[in-house]
């Protein structure tokens, strides 16, 4: 009932990318049916299975898919707080197929079909790129900018970024699905078919595991403070978990999968039934949960305060 109430609330508030045909995102519309975006209402065409991520200050949105890497400037809507934002297309780096993208320090690090590329964040479109030919790289960069980790089937390889050198590699008992460093860079979480394993980045040794069946659609996203993480177990089921205890803090309605979280932790991009994207204001979500008498406290315990 709680999930249904949240879904109803955000059906009215969310900005959605509607799909016209199989995986082809054509235009963005608001809850009142109005279109937005500079010039024509087209945002992304033929963006099948696009993966979004934000710039460090949240002012730009990037997305990559099989065809290309795209970039937009995000401009707040004029007027009330509920006004819809506008997206303006910007020049994007020219590169081979992209598998991952992350900002760290003053650089944009891309994992591509040819290896890793490191571009200056101040000029991602035209800046000279450092290239490291390692083959296909599904890379995740640590927040402190020291390491990049890439998975290859049942193996995970970690490299030091500057100077570039191999740190080590680890084998898992099942195929790895996703991996990501914690915001403090003190741990690396690796999702495999059997669950999520946390590696200590000081000793590069496993410390604890969350046992859960995960399929190839598994995803991991940490909150900015690192105290919780979003885990998508498959294409239909996802929830927010406490990082230390693995307690479930907020299950999402079936078919809603988290895609990206803004650097300030306020906006969450969510895939809905693999056909459209909603952008949630998590401050509003917490307020609605409190109105329902359900919310997790600062010590991450789920509280119930029925009125």
Give a written overview of the molecule:
The chain is mainly beta and 307 residues long. It has a domain at 138-251: Methylamine Dehydrogenase, Chain H (7 Propeller), CATH 2.130.10.10. 7% of the residues lie in helices and 47% in strands. The chain is built from two helices and 28 strands. Strands 3-2-1-26-25-24 form a six-stranded antiparallel beta sheet. Strands 4-5-6-7 form a four-stranded antiparallel beta sheet, with no helix packed on it. Mean pLDDT is 76; it is low at 1-46 and 298-307.
The fourth-level CATH homologous superfamily of the domain at 138-251 is YVTN repeat-like/Quinoprotein amine dehydrogenase
What is the CATH architecture annotation of the domain at 138-251?
7 Propeller
Structural class: mainly beta
Computed CA radius of gyration, to the nearest angstrom: 19 Å
Largest sheet, if any?
Answer: 6 strands, antiparallel
Euclidean distance between termini CA atoms? 16 Å
Calculate the mean pLDDT score and round it: 76
Can you tell me the CATH topology of the domain at 138-251?
Methylamine Dehydrogenase, Chain H
CATH class of the domain at 138-251 reads: Mainly Beta
Strand order of the largest sheet: 3-2-1-26-25-24
The total of beta strands comes to: 28
Ranges with pLDDT <50 over ≥5 residues?
1-46, 298-307
Instruction: Give the topology string: H per helix, E per strand.
Output: HEEEEEEEEEEEEEEEEEEEEEEEEEEHEE
> Number of helical runs?
2
* Portion of residues within helices: under 10%
Shape: globular
